[in-house]
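Please describe our next protein:
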Amino acid sequence: MATYIEFSSTNQYVPDRGVQRNTKQRTLIATFGDGYEQRAVDGLNPQDETITMNFANRLNSEIDALVTDLNTDIAKAVTIVIDGGLPIKGVCDDYSRNVLYEGVDGASTLSASFRRVYEP
């Protein structure tokens, strides 16, 4: 099963194994003085999800292309597929790049965090 991200340019990038998904549940809570509380789901999609992907020891040219797509699609949602599952949409809020060594055959590492968004 493949894991990849796809940009509006139709470029696809396959991250390293170990994609991290963090989920936080949003609830509205009313607490009362006697220790009781009332809870309700906050919105139609109450999960805030962050997906972190790493691209380690890749050629600088591959990381350059990925950075170009990340910078081009700043406000656009990209398609994320994890383990061949249903595609989800996400926007990249931040990424960090580490240049391991420069030159024609240079290598870099990139880590990107995507925030899940709900849109068609």
Summary: Strands lie at 4-6, 12-13, 20-25, 27-31, 37-41, 47-59, 78-81, 88-101, 107-117. Residues 4-117 form a domain with the Elongation Factor Tu (Ef-tu); domain 3 fold (CATH 2.40.30). The mean pLDDT is 91.
